[in-house]
Amino acid sequence: MNTTTVELDPRAVSAWVQNRMIFIELTDGRQIGFPADRFRLLANATNETLSQVELCLNGAALRWEVLDEDISVRGIVEGRFQLPLTLPLAA
After folding, report:
1. What value does the mean pLDDT take over residues 13-26?
2. Please, which residues have CB within 8 angstroms of residue 63's CB and are 6 or more apart in sequence?
3. Which tops the pLDDT comparison, 89 or 18?
4. What residue segments make up the domains of the chain, in order of their start?
5. What is the pLDDT of residues 29-62, one digit of tens each?
6. In angstroms, what CA-CA distances link 39 with 24, 33, 46, 82?
7. Percent of the chain at pLDDT exceeding 70
8. Nearest partner of 39 among 56, 25, 53, 28, judged by Cα
9. CATH architecture of 12-77
10. Which of 2, 5, 19, 59 could form an S-S bond across to 12 if both were Cys, CB 3.0 to 4.6 Å?
11. pLDDT reported for residue 79
12. What sign results for the dihedral spanned by CA atoms 66, 71, 73, 77?
């Protein structure tokens, strides 16, 4: 039996921000979201600044021009974030 490894190059077709969550829709229809707090520059950004997300490199990256921040779509899909997830303390 032969197996072939296919290199996937995930691309986004849209990106948006809602309640400090960044969402992307991929070319295959999946939607992925992550908290802005998972990246240093995004964690400190205002809601207005976060909403200025743009797609660049034919959907291979997210760009915030005012922050000079670029995040690869591949990194998001693979779950590579700068900061750990912080969960609210249990009551």
Report:
1. 98
2. 53, 54, 55, 56, 69, 70
3. 18
4. 12-77
5. 999 999 999 999 999 999 999 999 999 999 999 9
6. 16, 13, 13, 5
7. 88
8. 53
9. 2-Layer Sandwich (3.30)
10. 59
11. 94
12. negative
